[in-house]
Specification:
Strand content: under 5%
Helix content: 55-70%
Number of helices: 2
Radius of gyration: 16 Å
Length: 74
Amino acid sequence: MAPHIKVSEPVQEELNFRRELAALINRHSRENASGTPDYILANYLSRCLDNYDQTVMEREQFFNRPIKTLPEVM
């Protein structure tokens, strides 16, 4: 059995998000059309969100506007 590895809270939150997203994809059988495992789709979608966040920040910097962050929802 693999040893337990302690990760930082933000990393653990990301892992939990991806795990929950994979479960949601699986529950709705959204992986069936592409034949791609749900966890791979969850990783892809998570990276899409990260890329979009980066794109928004770059846009705001281009227009010399302050970068706004949303308050924590949960």
